[in-house]
Description:
The protein has 182 residues and is α/β, with parallel strands linked by helices.
Amino acid sequence: MKIAVVGRGNLGGGLADFWEKAGHDVTRFGKDGGDVSDAEAVLVAVPGGAVADALARVQGLEGKTVIDATNLVGAEPPAGFESNAEFVKSKTNGPTAKSFNLNFARLYDRLGETKSTPSNPWAGDEEARATVDQLTHDAGYEPVYAGGLENAKTLEAGIKLFFAISQASGPFVYRMAPPDQL
Ligand SMILES: NC(=O)c1ccc[n+]([C@@H]2O[C@H](COP(=O)([O-])OP(=O)(O)OC[C@H]3O[C@@H](n4cnc5c(N)ncnc54)[C@H](OP(=O)(O)O)[C@@H]3O)[C@@H](O)[C@H]2O)c1
């Protein structure tokens, strides 16, 4: 798959490494933006408060399948939107998902140590499911569906709980599964 990663830091760069190892063709963009016309999937991994600025510097987004991984830390979604993911969709009008925002990039190099595959929750459009499922598996996680894009705000709010646990107990991976699948 041709993937454009907008934001090539800890999260975007880490996922780009996984996806390249899985055989995908990944192009990485930073603050200067660029043209994503060629991409079949776009990851947004910039600071949450910079999402509007970041997308304004990206060309070729119309109709793209986009995974928004941003978290809002000390920031709010752009005015008129309940989540960054819904803002992203307003700019692309394509299949959109919120995902990868509730996992710690600093543990990416330890995913192989887990006894069961860690979970990666996502919320978003049904048309984005195949892309999210594949890129989640290719990063070493199991996708867990959390409903439509209207639930992206719930995933974005989840970071407060995850930060609280991380500060109290250290960064963690987790498995969400019915009892018979644990
Ligand atoms: N790190 C994690 O464990 C983690 C986990 C879940 C979610 N997230 C979320 O993922 C996002 C990225 O986090 P990160 O830790 O990867 O950050 P990071 O290492 O600081 O990387 C940020 C990236 O965003 C780009 N950027 C910064 N300001 C921008 C702007 N105004 N416009 C366009 N691009 C801009 C930077 O561009 P340059 O390369 O040009 O400097 C860089 O590539 C954040 O929303 C964060 O909350 C992070």
